[in-house]
């Protein structure tokens, strides 16, 4: 059974929150959140993505996947910064 109203509400909430990650993505590498923050968030958002797919909340699933991808970008940027820092020291 597809639930259009909850799906749209959850997707819109995610859509409102997603742009708040853009300043962090565009910030210098030294200002990225720690891996202990970003990695668990990526994993949790992936679980949420699959859960939304399972209960047929397609729009919410897509928005959760986009959020997970944004957090994954932050994690990769942090790893890149840590490697650069290690090489320079």
Task: Provide an overview of this structure.
- This protein has helices spanning 4-17, 22-26, 35-54, 58-88.
- The chain is an all-alpha fold.
- It has a domain at 34-89.
- The model has no long low-confidence stretch (mean pLDDT 92).
Secondary structure layout plus pairing:
Layout: H1 4-17, H2 22-26, H3 35-54, H4 58-88
Could you give the count of β-strands?
Answer: 0
Residue fraction in strands: under 5%
**In terms of per-residue confidence, which ranges show pLDDT below 50 for 5 or more consecutive residues?**
none
Termini separation comes to: 57 Å
Quick synopsis:
With 89 residues, the chain is mainly α. Helix content is 79%, strand content 0%. It has a domain at 34-89.
């Amino acid at each position: 059974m597809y639930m259009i109203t909850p799906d749209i509400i959850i997707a819109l909430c995610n859509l409102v929150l997603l742009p708040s990650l853009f300043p962090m993505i565009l910030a210098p590498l030294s200002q990225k959140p720690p891996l202990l923050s970003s990695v668990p968030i990526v994993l949790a958002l992936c679980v949420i993505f699959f859960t939304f797919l399972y209960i047929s909340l397609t729009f919410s699933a897509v928005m959760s996947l986009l959020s997970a991808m944004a957090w994954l970008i932050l994690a990769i940027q942090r790893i890149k910064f840590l490697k650069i820092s290690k090489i320079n020291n």
